[in-house]
Amino acid sequence: MSRGAGAVWRASRAAVRRRGAQTFVLGVVVFCSTVAIVVALGLLESVSAPFERAFEGRRGAHVVASYDPAEVTAARLGARAPGVEAAAGPFAQAVVTVAGTSEHLPPGPLTVVGRPSPGGPVDRVDLWAGRWPAGEGEIVLDRPGADRFFSYLLGVRFAVREGHTFTVVGLASSVSRSAEAWVTPGQAAALGPSTAQMLYRLDAAATDADVRAGTAALTAGLPSGALLGWQSYLTVKRDAGRTAAAFLPFLTAFGVLGLVVAVLIVANVVSGAVVAGSRHIGVLKALGFTPNQVVAVYLTMVLVPALAGGALGTAAGAVAARPLLDDVGAGVFTVSIGPWVYAATLAGMPAVAVLAALVPALRAHRLPAARAIGAGVPAAPGRGARVQRLLAGAPLPRAVSLGLGLPFGRPGRAGLTLAAVVLGAATVTLAAGLSLTMTAYGQAAQRTGSVHTVVHAGQARNHQTPPRHGDAEIEALLRGLPGAVYVTADAWIGLHLTGRSQPITGRFLRGDSATLGETVVEGRWLRGPGEVVAPSAFLDKRGLAVGDRLSLSLGRARAETTIVGATMDGAADLIQADWRTLTALAPDQRATQYEVRLAPGADTGTYHAAVRAADPGLYPVPKSGTDPVTVAVIGFASLLTVLLGTVAALGVFNTVLLDARERRRDLGVLKSIGMTPRQVTVMMVTSMAALGAAGGLLGLPVGVAAHRLVVPAMADAAGLALPEFMVDVWRAPLLVPLPVAGVVIAVLGALVPARSAARLTIAAVLRDE
Amino acid sequence: MDTRDERLVVRLGDVRKEYGATTALDGLSLRVRAGEAVAVMGPSGCGKSTLLNLIAGLDRPTAGTVEVDGQELGALNETGLALFRRRRVGMIFQFFNLIEDLPALDNAALAAQLTGTPARQARDRALELFDELGIAERANAYPAALSGGERQRVAVARALMNRPALLLADEPTGALDSRSGEQVMDLLIDLNQIGQTLLIVTHDPGLAARCASRRVELRDGQVVAEQSLDRTP
Ligand SMILES: Nc1ncnc2c1ncn2[C@@H]1O[C@H](COP(=O)(O)OP(=O)(O)OP(=O)(O)O)[C@@H](O)[C@H]1O
Ligand SMILES: [Mg+2]
After folding, report:
1. Per-residue pLDDT tens over the stretch A506-554
2. Is the pTM of this model over 0.80?
3. Could you give the maximum distance between any two Cα atoms of chain B, in Å?
4. Of A115, A59, A120, which is closest to residue A92 (Cα–Cα)?
5. What is the pLDDT of residues B49-78, one digit of tens each?
6. Chain A 638-667, CB below 8 Å of chain B: which residues?
7. Ligand 2 centre and the CA of A764: distance in Å?
8. What is the pLDDT of residue A414?
9. Nearest alpha carbon to residue A419 among A749, A752, A704, A742
10. Residue A626 DSSP SS3
11. Concatenated DSSP letters of A550-607
């Protein structure tokens, strides 16, 4: 037995050494695939439950409870309670009212909690800008940190009706939404009538019932009025992360694609290697290797590069995946790559390789030695012969027609090569398509380049300077300042649909509204009065469709309108209409803000200064430009596309390399009967270019079809209607390079062995037998 | 001025061939006249295949001159050698060396097509040869479906397609059973009878005696004996 194992090992080692180039390429393919899979699995894990990940990562509070300090002591609250995994607090909590004097903060109630630090056993607040309050008058506001848009709030001072003034020293966000702002505990106590906030993590909190039961247990021994109110994390979860969520389906699609393609390519390359070795299998059998030993030789031969590639790929993935995903994840998801990912690739890649090798190896196992020696060689004249005969008579140089005909002689082997090319072409097509769709979506959602500045009119009730100019004058003024290209005035008004009680918001537009960059998914944009456009979410919620009539009410006034278009937006209670529609409802309404698009290259700061100088009652705010989340997500998609493309190209290259190497003896024979080195190269290249072109042409529609299938399904899952132009991203100039790329890769794969064979002395090639 | 019969088809002058430290041919000279059938014999490793490969232009000598059918091979580049092989020599191998992916007839026709013969004409010529060699009914089979003897006859047909000045055979019966071997040998004798110049490598003294007009004995890359056989061309 041990002697048998030794022979198997020696034969495998010899096979690995003899096929050095192939073993190396196989290792590289496994390596790249493994990196892609680590990234893909990490991505899938991170996006599968972004809220849960963020929540667990920050040890979010399952229950945020407010107690009446008069009814229950701090000591009692701090005592261990049954069913509680961890608790924090009590923290003094007060509600203050922001005075309308700040131009940056909305007036109204603000829930403030006194906490000594952002950390602790529960609800670790993410302090993403500035620092934690250290003394009187300092406050941290709760704002999402995704694109750092709210950074401008740092240093802002504002007053509250209760008679305090605060300076914003930091910006933070809490996954538990435990407060709107934080101050020092001492400051909180000084803010007057306060409640006591407790943050709990429960042992069991999977369902609403669990959370309710847990909360009941907490308050079991307390006076009935002690618990003033509580909030479950499940409520927070339900309305968390709307815009970011729209990207998740795309990223999921990418993750799954990366996984599937990497596995398929490894399988293809491995089985190609084994099929190529079937002759060798026959020889081994003839030498007296048992069928099982032959299978063992082949599995070992494949395992060596698979283990090496898998291990190195996992290591590289471990190093690269986290920073890569971190970049994308900012604001969309929290990166989480569990050890299972590494375990899966370490054990999985060799397993995939072995499985892929097993099928053809087992076939060889069953073959009698004599047939294995000739395996893959055609024995009966069939369709292949007919095609070859046709080609032989075709008015083409014989080297070309021979190259075109050769693959038909051995359809099995040609099939594997073709499959590799089809897979590669389809992958690159689909990945590029996803990338294009995501780019289109990101730009549309961000309305990139449409509006650069929003100018608010000062309002006396907010203690702002009212503008000196009238509504129409302001519009004209803004339009006249250097740099402005388009100006749209708009007013946001609370309305009702006639006969319905739920309020909706109407946004009425005047000026260059068509340049706002709103994406219409169905119907068209506004052209005049009596028309509205609404997000598809609005229509779905009310069972309406484009073309339906809509009656708007404001007080006693009414306006009859028609829905002419659906926009790509998640807002379920918003409609947009032309200013003249508003005139019918509220004739004296002024615009509340003006949206300005600047000329390319115009400086926002210069324009703002001009606005302020022209009328101190105008307050320009720069619009957050390209969203870093979108940029990161798209950059990542491109990167994954390149990674998958590389893996696919390597797979094709390897398969072609094998195919061409297989034909080395044929090349020697052809040279011995008088083929010139040039003709030999032409023949090989023609042969593989034909397969490459066929594969590219087949793979292209497969990729496009997959894209057309995946994208709407994903958008659907996200409850998003995508306009046709985001699905139909394919343009001829984009499509042409893909089959060309297939041909180029195939040709490169053919050129290397063809040229080396052309250089080899024929005597040496023929001696190989 | 050679008479037709005195024309030299092969002239090797002091040819050396080294593979690294191995000397395969060690200053070998050899002449083959048109119409001759020369059998090259000798123990394994003495350089027989090397000699044949040099004459066929499949390899180049380390030193010395190789002239075939009036053409000095050393003067040719790779492409020139290919054109030379196309028209001047035909070669038969011990293991046939057919293209497995092409049917038998196409394997043969290919040789003519490389010289620019149109497909139809090339096929007709191949079929003619197949007929003479007795394998016409196997024309559409792939090599894998043919017996060893049949494969070797396809290889002979391929070698003869362009009416070469010289037919080279490296142990053409080595992989065949004795009956098929005999048939192939008979074929070569017939060809020589109608004027085909032959250079055959063989281990079998009996076969050599039957088909060759001259026997050349190699040892360690040198000609050690030459013997005209009692067989007039
Ligand atoms: N490509 C090569 N590389 C290295 N050595 C070679 C090569 N070709 C031939 N040789 C060596 O040259 C010598 C002559 O080889 P050759 O094949 O001509 O012998 P042979 O007479 O045909 O033998 P056999 O009867 O076994 O076929 C041998 O020692 C062989 O090992
Ligand atoms: Mg030999």
Report:
1. 899 998 888 777 788 888 988 988 899 998 878 877 788 899 888 888 8
2. no
3. 49
4. A115
5. 899 989 998 888 999 999 999 999 999 888
6. 665-666
7. 12
8. 74
9. A742
10. coil
11. EEEEETTEEEEEEEEEEES---SSEEEEEHHHHHHH-TTPPPSEEEEEEPTT--HHHH
DSSP β-ladder status, A557-567 and A531-535: parallel
**Structure tokens, B192:** 């020589």
The ipTM estimated for the assembled molecules is 0.84
Q: Where are the beta strands (DSSP E) in A143-214?
A: 157-159, 165-173, 181-183, 195-202
Q: For residues A610 and A490, is the Cβ–Cβ distance under 8 A?
A: no
Q: What is the pLDDT of residues A197-220, one digit of tens each?
A: 889 998 888 888 888 888 888 888
Report the DSSP beta bridge partners of residue A95. Answer: A111
CA distance A685 to A682: 5
Model confidence band, residue A249 (pLDDT cutoffs 50, 70, 90): low
Indicate yes or no: CB of A766 within 8 angstroms of CB of B93: yes
Q: Is B46 near chain A, with CB under 8 Å?
A: no
Q: Which two tokens stand for residue A84?
A: 């509680």
Please check whether residue B7 touches A, CB under 8 A.
Answer: no
- Which of A212-246 are b and which e, b meaning 16 or more Cβ less than 10 Å from the residue's Cβ? eebbeebbeeeeeebbeebbbbeebeeebbebbbb
A409 touches chain B (CB under 8 A): yes
Q: Which two tokens stand for residue A576?
A: 């947009």
Residue B129 sits at φ, ψ, to 5 deg, of -65, -40
Residues whose CB falls within 8 Å of the CB of residue A81, separated by 6 or more in sequence, listed in order: A87, A200, A217, A218
Residues 6+ apart with CB under 8 A from B47: B17, B24, B25, B26, B28, B218, B220, B221
Beta strands A108-114; A181-183: pairing state? parallel
Q: Which atom of ligand 1 is nearest to the CA of A761?
A: 1
Tokens of A291: 């069928």
Judge: domain B8-228, CATH 3.40.630.30: no
CA nearest A657: which of A272, A172, A310, A304? A272
Contact assessment for residue A196 and residue A69, using Cβ atoms and an 8 Å cutoff: yes
* Bond before A69 cis per omega within 30 degrees: no
Task: Please answer whether residues B142 and B100 qualify as being in contact, where contact means their C-beta atoms are separated by less than 8 angstroms.
Answer: yes
Q: What is the 3-state secondary structure (H, E, C) of A375-429?
A: CCCCCCCCHHHHHHHHHHHCCCCHHHHHHHHHHHHCHHHHHHHHHHHHHHHHHHH
Q: Which helix (H) or strand (E) holds B132?
A: helix B119-133
Cα of B179 to ligand 1 centre, how many Å? 28
Kindly indicate whether the domain formed by A453-624 is annotated with CATH number 2.40.40.20.
yes
- List every span in chain A annotated with CATH 2.40.40.20: 453-624
Residues 377 through 396 of chain A touching chain B, CB cutoff 8 Å: 377-381, 385, 388-389, 392-394
Strands A108-114 and A84-98 turn out to be antiparallel
Residue A73 neighbours by CB distance under 10 Å = 13
Domain spans, chain B: 8-228
Please report residues of A whose CB lies closer than 8 A to that of B170. Answer: none
Helix, strand, coil abundance in chain B, percent, nearest 5:
40, 25, 35
Token pair listed for A612 = 């302020």
A699: left (phi over 0), alpha (psi -120 to 50) or beta: alpha
Exposed/middle/buried for B1, CB within 10 Å: 0-12, 13-18, 19+? exposed
Structure tokens at A621: 């705010």
C-alpha dist (Å) from residue A628 to A326, A448, A636:
12, 12, 12
Token pair 């399904």 in the structure block, residue: A713
Give the dihedral sign, CA A698/A700/A704/A710. Answer: positive
pLDDT for the residue numbered A444 = 75
